[in-house]
Structure formats: structure tokens, C-alpha cells
Task: inverse folding
């Protein structure tokens, strides 16, 4: 009962902050980018909370349970991405557009913006949706099974949509101060208690060595090809993560936007490393628990994704466990409302405002976006039946965004020779490749037969889907750009510093 009281009290506190902040929303700029007045410390917190979502709480945990410390290759892709983003954060803030697709339109053309918008809508609905799915599992664990994961998913969806509708970006950056703090505190406190509960560090290492020695190796029994496949999606998503660009535009100035990225790097590295270590200790604790394994001895991937929350609910003292579960609620809510916010901003600006309501007032734009949040939330909920695990959903959505948008976006900031045609072709080819892979996987998933195309077998392991998609997108970008006329200086000079 204590767990429920603590989590509900924390969520109600966040809800109160959101209701209070909703009173300060007076314009579309307030709702979309918090009036462009967010200070560094708030920006750091909200950037960390954007990245640390259900993909980390469940996906990273599940991957650690089945591969050990080699999971860090998955996380490290994002860490490298953050350092690259550090180089362009100030330029993004100076250009001061609302969304990533605004940047694509400015460097390429409106078609690039439309294709980028479609990509973001589809992929971000999946990301928002697996926050609902993760929230459903969270509620089921918290209620000790009295609420099913499906019912819990509805509860999580209603909460996340409600938070986002209230005050938009103003609400998000305000509550993320609390969310970021409780995430970090919970992970720091949980790790030593989890180790101690299993008999100490030596006992944890001994258990892992006996059960699965490869869990303590850097490669985890995999080859370099797997490392590339698992690191690429997080790296590419970080490069083209629209919510980050929208939050850069929320900064009070360009210099602070850059400072916030370095703060984000430190925060994400610390929190994700702690999560990996907690899940690794969880493997030691549950290495002989039949709930986490299938009849043939393979890891039950869906159950393994719950390892961190199971530790909080089943292994820790009540006070520490309550703190960890409150952090779990923070992780699900903060990431869910961010991705709903970004998707609705794209739909509002790039579709409704661009084509249907060109003369809408500031107040009307805010209400249009609130309606979009509700609609996107519903669609995200309906998409959940297409995937079994949160990691599968994360890898597919990350690759959709990364392979489609990252090459064109990076070229905009680092390659003067990229052309408008090359950028558009790259976005289209990356998106189409991921869609084809997803369709073929769906068709052959339940089939007794497999399909081989150019040496690739379908259904394809989602650990590797980023590789062919990136190859197609980058090759198209380079070849088409070199075959078309070089762009004028005016097209690239704002993006590329001397």
C-alpha cells in the first residue's frame, strides 16, 4: 500500500504543477517552446528526462538482462550522439525555429519538411505508445496484478495525454526538474541496496559468472556487426531527435542551449550506467527464477524488461522501493508527454497551420494543438498491438527517425555540397527502407518460411535493422547530391559556421 500512496502522491504533485502552469500559457510560443525563456538548469533536466524514458527503464533493462554489460553499446550510441549535438546546439537556437522539420524546410524545401513530418508522426506515435505500454506494466506491478497491463495502459495513456494537454512545453520543463531529480536519486540509492540484498558485490559477480559468464564481458559474446547494429539506432535518433531541437529553441539564449547539452551528456551517462548496473544485479538475483525464462531456457524478453521495477517492488526496503517506483512513474510520464508534445507541434504547424488555418489566432493554434494531442494519443494507443516488447518498438522507431532524418540533418550542418534534391531523396529512401523491413517482418513473423533478399533474411532481428536503412539513406544522399547542381552559398551559410 505504501508504494501506491507514494506514487499517487507524486503524480498528483506533478498534476498540480501542470494545472498551475497552464494559467501562464498565453500564446502558441508559450505552449510550443515555453516562451523561449528556459534557463540552463531546467533545460538540462528536461533534456535528460526526454531521453530517459520507457526505452531505458524497460528496453535497456531487458537488453542488459539478456546480454550483460555489453548493453552499454546501445547506450553509448546516444552518448556519442549527444557530443555531436553539442557542436550544433547553439546554431539551432540562433536559427530559432520551432521544430526540426522547420530546419529541414529552411535548408532544403517544403517537401523535405512534409516527409520529415510524416516520419516523425509515425515514429513518435510508436515512442509515445510504448510509454503507454510501459506505464501499463508499471501499474500492473504496482497493483500486484489486480489491474491488468491492458487496463494499466489505458490509465497511463490518460495521465500522459492529460499532462501534455494542460500546459504544453511550459508544463513539461516545469515538472521535469522534479522528474530528473527523483530519477537520479532513485538510481543512486537503489544500486547499493540491490547489491547488498544479494549478499554483496562478490556474491553478485560469482552468481553471474556461474549463470552466464559472457554477461561480464564487453562484447557479451557478440561480434562487431552486432555492436554497430545496436549502437546505430540510438546514435541516429539523438542526431534527429525533434524534441531536443524544440527544447533548444526553448532556451533563453544560444550559449545556454550549448551548456545544457553538456549537462545532458553527464546526466544521461550517469543514469543509464546506473540502470544497466541495477539490471545486471537483477540478473544475478533472478537468474534461477522461472518467470524470467522460457521453457527452452531462453530469456523471456517481455518479463526481463520489468527487472528494475521488480527489484523495487520485491527486493528493496519499502522506502527505497517507493522512491524507485516514483522514479519509474516520472520516467514514463516525462518521456510520454514530450513525444506527444513534439508530434502534435509538427501536426499543428506543418499540416493544420500550413494548409488549413493559415490565419488562426494564437489562442486558436493552442486549442488546435491540444486537439492534436488527444488524437495522436488515441492513435498511439491503438498501435500497441503490433509489437511484443518495448525494445523492439524502440529499435524500430529509433531507426525510422534516425535513418530518415539524421543523414540529411547532419549534412545540413556539416556538408556544403548537399543539395535540396539529395536531402529529400535521403529522407524518402531511409523512411521507405524501414517501412519495407517492418512490413516484411510482419508478414514473415508468424510464417514457417523465411525470405532472403540480397543476403538479408526476413523476419529480420530488430537488433540489426538500422544497418541497411542507414546504408541506403547515406548512399542516396551522397550520390544524388553529387549528381545535381551545387547549392548557392545562401542556402547553407546560416547552417555552417566559418
Result:
Amino acid at each position: 500500500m505504501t508504494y501506491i500512496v507514494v506514487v499517487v502522491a507524486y503524480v498528483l504533485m506533478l498534476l498540480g504543477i501542470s494545472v498551475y502552469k497552464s494559467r501562464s500559457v498565453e500564446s502558441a510560443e508559450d505552449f510550443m517552446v515555453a516562451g523561449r525563456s528556459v534557463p540552463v538548469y531546467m533545460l538540462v533536466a528536461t533534456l535528460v528526462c526526454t531521453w530517459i524514458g520507457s526505452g531505458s527503464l524497460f528496453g535497456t533493462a531487458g537488453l542488459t538482462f539478456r546480454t550483460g554489460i555489453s548493453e552499454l553499446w546501445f547506450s553509448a550510441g546516444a552518448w556519442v550522439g549527444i557530443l555531436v549535438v553539442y557542436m550544433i546546439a547553439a546554431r539551432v537556437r540562433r536559427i530559432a525555429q520551432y521544430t526540426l522539420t522547420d530546419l529541414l524546410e529552411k535548408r532544403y524545401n517544403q517537401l523535405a519538411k512534409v516527409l520529415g513530418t510524416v516520419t516523425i508522426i509515425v515514429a513518435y506515435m510508436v515512442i509515445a505508445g510504448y510509454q503507454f505500454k510501459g506505464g501499463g506494466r508499471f501499474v500492473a506491478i504496482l497493483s500486484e496484478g489486480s489491474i491488468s497491463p491492458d487496463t494499466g495502459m489505458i490509465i497511463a495513456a490518460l495521465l500522459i495525454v492529460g499532462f501534455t494537454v494542460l500546459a504544453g512545453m511550459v508544463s513539461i520543463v516545469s515538472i521535469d526538474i522534479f522528474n530528473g531529480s527523483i530519477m537520479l536519486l532513485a538510481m543512486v540509492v537503489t544500486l547499493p541496496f540491490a547489491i547488498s540484498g544479494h549478499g554483496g558485490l562478490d556474491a553478485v559477480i560469482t552468481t553471474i559468472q556461474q549463470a552466464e559468464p559472457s554477461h561480464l564481458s564487453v562484447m557479451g559474446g557478440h561480434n562487431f556487426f552486432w555492436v554497430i547494429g545496436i549502437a546505430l539506432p540510438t546514435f541516429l535518433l539523438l542526431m534527429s531527435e525533434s524534441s531536443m531541437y524544440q527544447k533548444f529553441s526553448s532556451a533563453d539564449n544560444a550559449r545556454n542551449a550549448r551548456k545544457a547539452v553538456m549537462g545532458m551528456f553527464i546526466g544521461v551517462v550517469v543514469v543509464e550506467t546506473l540502470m544497466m548496473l541495477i539490471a545486471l544485479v537483477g540478473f544475478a538475483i533472478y537468474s534461477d527464477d522461472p518467470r524470467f525464462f522460457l521453457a527452452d531456457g531462453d530469456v523471456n524478453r517481455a518479463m526481463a524488461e520489468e527487472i528494475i521495477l521488480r527489484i523495487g517492488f520485491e527486493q528493496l526496503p519499502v522506502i527505497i522501493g517507493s522512491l524507485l517506483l516514483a522514479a519509474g512513474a516520472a520516467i514514463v510520464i516525462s518521456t510520454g508527454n514530450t513525444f506527444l508534445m513534439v508530434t502534435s507541434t509538427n501536426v499543428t504547424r506543418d499540416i493544420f497551420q500550413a494548409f488549413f488555418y493559415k490565419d488562426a489566432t494564437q489562442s486558436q493554434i493552442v486549442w488546435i494543438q491540444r486537439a492534436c494531442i488527444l488524437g495522436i494519443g488515441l492513435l498511439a494507443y491503438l498501435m500497441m498491438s503490433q509489437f511484443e516488447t518495448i525494445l523492439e518498438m524502440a529499435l524500430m522507431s529509433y531507426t525510422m527517425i534516425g535513418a530518415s532524418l539524421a543523414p540529411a540533418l547532419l549534412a545540413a550542418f556539416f556538408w556544403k555540397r548537399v543539395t535540396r534534391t539529395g536531402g529529400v531523396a535521403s529522407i524518402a529512401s531511409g523512411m521507405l527502407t524501414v517501412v519495407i523491413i517492418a512490413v516484411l517482418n510482419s508478414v514473415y513473423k508468424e510464417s514457417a518460411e523465411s525470405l532472403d533478399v540480397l543476403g538479408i533474411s526476413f523476419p529480420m532481428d530488430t537488433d540489426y535493422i538500422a544497418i541497411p536503412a542507414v546504408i541506403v539513406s547515406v548512399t542516396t544522399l551522397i550520390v544524388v547530391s553529387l549528381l545535381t547542381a551545387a547549392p548557392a552559398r545562401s542556402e547553407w551559410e546560416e547552417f555552417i559556421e566559418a
